[in-house]
Design goal:
It contains 6 helices and no strands. With 107 residues, it is mainly alpha-helical.
């Protein structure tokens, strides 16, 4: 098994596995191949902001209320060198900001 190399890939796989969602099911929802989605989960392919948001939206559409959008947003932010938060809701921005401060030891 290839080591997971990004926070987003790790969190995506954890959330999928906890809820019994197969890679192929998420890939089908996103209209991409399971092989390509696997390369994102394992860090073989570079994660883009656009792709991260597509994954998060697809996960949200497939999951019940136990889906943790915030954790995936934070993992995406940590995995993408440049992440434009302008399109996020104010609560999502605030949660990401607090988590970044916590990770930096500022909170």
């Amino acid at each position: 098994i290839m080591e997971l190399t990004t926070p987003f890939g790790l969190e995506l796989r954890l959330q999928r596995n906890r809820r019994g969602l197969l890679l192929k099911d998420l890939a089908e929802k996103m209209d991409i191949s399971a092989a390509y989605l696997s390369t994102i989960e394992t860090g073989v392919k570079v994660l883009t902001e656009k792709f991260a948001m597509q994954c998060i939206d697809a996960m949200e559409a497939l999951m019940d209320s136990s889906f943790d959008r915030e954790k995936l947003l934070i993992a995406a932010y940590a995995s993408v060198h440049s992440f434009d938060v302008r399109s996020l809701s104010a609560p999502d921005k605030a949660r990401i900001g607090l988590e970044i401060k916590r990770l930096r030891g500022e909170a």
